[in-house]
Amino acid sequence: MSLRSKDLTGIKDLSAEEIGLILETAAGFKDVLGRDIKKVPALRGRTTVNLFYEPSTRTRTSFEVAAKRLSTDVINIAISTSSVVKGETLLDTAKTVLALGADIIVIRHNCSGTPHFLAKNINASVVNAGDGTNEHPTQALLDLFTINERKGRIKDLDIAIVGDILHSRVAKSDIYALTKLGAKIRLIGPPALVPDCLKDLGVKVYTDINAGLDGADVIMMLRIQLERQGKGYFPSTHEYFRNWGLTAARVARAKEDAIIMHPGPMNRGIEIASEVADSSRSVILDQVTNGIAVRMAVLYLVSGVQG
Amino acid sequence: MKIFIKNGRLVDPSQKIDDICDILIEDGTIKEIQIPRARGKGQGAKEKKEHELSGVDEVIDAGGMLVLPGLVDMHVHLREPGFEYKETIKTGTEAAVRGGITSVCCMPNTNPVNDNAGITEFIIKKAAQEGSCSVFPVGAITKGQKGEELAELGMMFDAGCVAFSDDGRPVMDSLVMRRALEYSRIRKALIISHAEDLSLSAGGVMNEGLLSVTLGLTGIPSQAEEVMIARDIALAELTHGRLHIAHVSTKGAVELVRLAKKRGIADITAETCPHYFSITEDAVEGYNTNAKVNPPLRRREDLEAIKAGLNDDTIDVIATDHAPHHRDEKLGEFDLAPSGISGFETSIGLSMKLVDAGVLTLDRLIKKMAVTPSRIVGIGKGTLKQGADADLVILDTRAEYSVSGARFRSKGKNTPFEGWKLKARPVATIAMGRVYKWE
Amino acid sequence: MSKELLDKTDIDRIITRMAHEIIERNRGISSLCLVGIQRGGVHIARRISSKLKEIEGREMPVGTLDIALYRDDINVRKEQPVVRRTQVPCEMNGIIVVLVDDVLFTGRSIRAAMDAIMDLGRPSAIQLAVLVDRGHRELPIKADFVGKNIPTSMDETVTVQLTEDGTKDSVELE
Hints:
- The complex is a heterotrimer of chains A (307), B (439) and C (174).
- Chain A is of the alpha/beta class and 307 residues long.
- Helix content of chain A is 41%, strand content 15%.
- Chain A has 2 domains: 11-136 and 288-306, 3-Layer(aba) Sandwich (Rossmann fold), CATH 3.40.50; 139-285, Rossmann fold, CATH 3.40.50.1370.
- In chain A, helix 2 links the parallel strand 1 and strand 2.
- The longest helix of chain B has 18 residues, at 222-239.
- The chains are: A alpha/beta (307), B alpha/beta (439), C alpha/beta (174).
- Chains in contact: A-B, A-C.
- The interface between A and B is medium-sized, with 25 and 18 residues.
């Protein structure tokens, strides 16, 4: 079995079977990461370009490590926002990168739909590392991998996602992926950030965090992204923490063996209390490790479709 | 120059004609219309033949086709002066006649803005020299379209502006809009409102709803349009000015206009565009920048409400809001692409579907696309009675053709209707005394 | 059109003999690790392991090795090889690895397997046990323990079926 497309633009375009393939392949790669020699020659001779229009250390590094573990050559290009405004169009940049020999372009951009545009217009594989407020598919995949690792399944789990859903590409990818695999989702947050129309996706919507966390198997916290928001979604970060911050008391509403997740980086004291972030229920660091295995799987599988 | 058009089915609502007719045009005006069945056989027919031969420069056989008064498009963007890379008066009017449009009202969001008599005169002069059809400028309501100070409406009107609008932008300040509606009364001039509350639409690039959330694009709620329409209707009531609502796109907007007309509180007219009764926000799927337009494409229920509004005359006019853009501008990030659809060359084809679907009769369609817009801006077109300007279009509705942006005469190839099968195709357009023909 | 070359009894006898050969060659099994190549070699490795336990009375660890990431034909194949688990429960350095596969053909899988083993550690020796050697080597690779030599032509196929996969035990030539 293989992926249907040479690109990974979003979870919306993946079938449940393809998601399963990526997770299984990631398990194989996690074995590799456990060895002394954490490298395999599978993509030797290929070139991966990380084209990041938004600053990022974690995701970019994770992709870089994953690409190197597969023996590809890695080029990192960080585009400052000023040069976007000044000059080269996205397509021209992508074509230049292609001419340099890129087989895979990993792109992060602040405009939704950018990976889809590139995928249509260039021959290399395009992997979405986060586009605007649309999707962050590899994050969702590593979240699924982590949940599956801890809970043994995805189907019928009660999963609560807390925070700014509207602007969170991580949350959206998670919602699509988890619903495709049969989980039950609750979204919790301030009314303007958790729009009602999301109910049409088959999820429950809560503004009361206590009700939303009741009996949950998994709690996923989102970062409050002050840089992405407009105005007035909620009055202050203090008010936010009071209403939607994850405290030990609120965690107690969930199941006893519930796990706590966060895509990072955390704003301690704004969306998550410090002691909760450091508790034994937190799988936040596992998410980071699994991220490399999942990204290796993605890079390996999209290369296989190039043919 | 004498032109003879024979055997076509003439549909002219202004004369209540819907019949096979022969039309004689001389020096750019309608000389005579003959309805063969109205004359006696034999003798009359012979007479006609002789008449036909004497000094006619061009004979057009419109057998099996429609002959309509040339369409009047009261909302277009010709981009000149300042944005000639997107379109010029020359290329825009060429595209217009290709679409059977013989009069256009061009919006002032050029560079420099048409906010004074000098720019108005430039446009009129350029159009006379290079245009393929009649061009009637719409002047800006405020200086620079900044929404702060009224432009010199009187002088602009005298220079040839037929209406005023800050289109592209709304007039956000209610006091300024009030003054515009009041002052325009000195010439009984039309104020065209681009209804958009910028504080509600800020950053939006498509209709707000589940689709915008799942595409990760900032949405523009219907209420951004409706809030302004409600305001403008109230101001029209206060001031007794003449108000025309541009590009109506939502169900709520149609309801507001319907109610205002029913209450008879003000002189209000409204227009919509072919895309609002042809496609919905679904056209944006896949981040299709050719479906990015302002106001945005809405939901199915809005589309149906627009059709109902056309059917019960809540909406008086169909205009294109022709908005050409350069190919490079629409090739890239959805957020950064400019809004607009190049509409001249698909307008009549899409609008004719309303007739096929029974939403409008042909007669009423022509009223909305020619007679009424001409009346609202007072340009005396939209009719083919004797002595009128010979602005007409010969339309073949028999065969289907496929929309191809690459073949547009307009510089703007930005259409979301690529590949659509349409039926009404202009075969010849007569405007400014010239005949334009295409295969 | 297929011909059964080995049946259940044949396979059983072959595995018994190979187990004895492995013990003889290595003078016991104390420093050995059996590693089955995914997927065909895994069940055979486990059967050999059981036999060795019967004979020597000791547990013989069995690992599984996925070679997908080391193949030399990744760019050439129509379908990308599926990545499977690699779990080797022995300390790799200084032991003797006995690689096990079902059919030895061109030798390229074994080359990939050796590269994979080398990335796991530094065994003191690598030996190769195969159920069937069908000839046509493209690389200088030789099996140390062979169940059966079956000369074939290039367009023939050798299929090994085992009860662990839900079928009966047999080796067929088509």
